[in-house]
Amino acid sequence: MKVAIACAAVLASATGSLVAIPQAVAQQGGANKLPAYRINPGDEIEVYVWGEERLQRGIRVLPDGSFSFPLVGRVEAAGKLPSDIETAITKGLSAQFRDQVPQVTVSVRNPSGFQFSVIGKVRSPGVFTPGKYVNVLEAVGMAGGPGEFADTSNVLILRKQNGSLVTMRVRLNDAIKGNPSSRDLAANGFPELQSGDTVIMP
Q1: CA dist., res. 19 & res. 11, Å (int)
Q2: Residue 45 — φ and ψ, nearest 5°?
Q3: 155 and 200 in contact (C-beta within 8 Å)?
Q4: Longest dimension (CA), the chain
Q5: Strand 116-120 with 198-201, pairing
Q6: Angstrom distance (rounded) from CA 179 to CA 153
Q7: CA–CA separation, 175 and 28 (whole Å)
Q8: Which pLDDT tens digit goes with each residue over 117-133?
Q9: C-alpha angle with apex 13: 190 to 120, nearest 5 degrees?
């Protein structure tokens, strides 16, 4: 993933001073392709059925990950690609048209459902809606950087996965000090966050 932090971005260190993130860290994994965006509860999407203005509308995905669409009914959206939803709506409309169903286009108007939390010893803990993919280092930066006495060598990511809670531990201390390790600079050095993740700075 191409990291969106510029080389001039800063994080507050545990001592309160500002540490510039080196260019090598800012660009780590830059050759990797970003994953396709999957719909989250709370996202705003737009559905357009060509030639059928009555079926064009903006929709906010419900907390249960679904939405209702005229002549189709309930559509499951959470975790799906926009193209998956296009297919589902096309299939649902097939009984309403004698000939081929007009082209259905689904686009994400506002990825407001993509959220994560940062808590613990950071300067500005909270829930964040970045509007883009971010990794754990960027998330800590968005939360104002590590606070005093923070243990940046033992950052925890909590993730709900298949009904279970998965934990990942990440070392950020070298990168925040401006001396990233070879592991930090590797393609997967800093895990990319998923919607619903919680980052804990001990």
Answers
A1: 5
A2: -120, 160
A3: yes
A4: 70
A5: parallel
A6: 13
A7: 11
A8: 999 999 999 999 999 99
A9: 70
Per-residue pLDDT tens digits for 27-79: 444 445 778 999 999 999 999 999 999 999 999 999 999 999 999 999 999 99
Structure tokens at 123: 């300067």
- Decide if 152 contacts 137 (C-beta within 8 A): no
- Could you tell me whether strands 44-49 and 57-60 are parallel, antiparallel, or unpaired per DSSP bridges? antiparallel
Distance of alpha carbon 88 from alpha carbon 94, whole angstroms = 10
Place of tokens 């090598």: 24
The pair of structure tokens assigned to 135 is 């990794």
Q: Residue 91 in 3-state DSSP?
A: helix
Residues 6+ away with beta carbon under 8 Å from 80: 38, 39, 88
